[in-house]
Amino acid sequence: MGRSTHGHAPAAPPDVGAVTQPADYADGMPTKEDVFEACRAVEDPELGMDIVELGLLYDAAFDGPNVTVTYSLTSMGCPVGPLIEQQIVEVVSAIDGVGEVKPNLTWDPPWSPELMSEDAKFILGVGY
Question: What confidence score (pLDDT) does residue 10 get?
Answer without folding.
Answer: 37
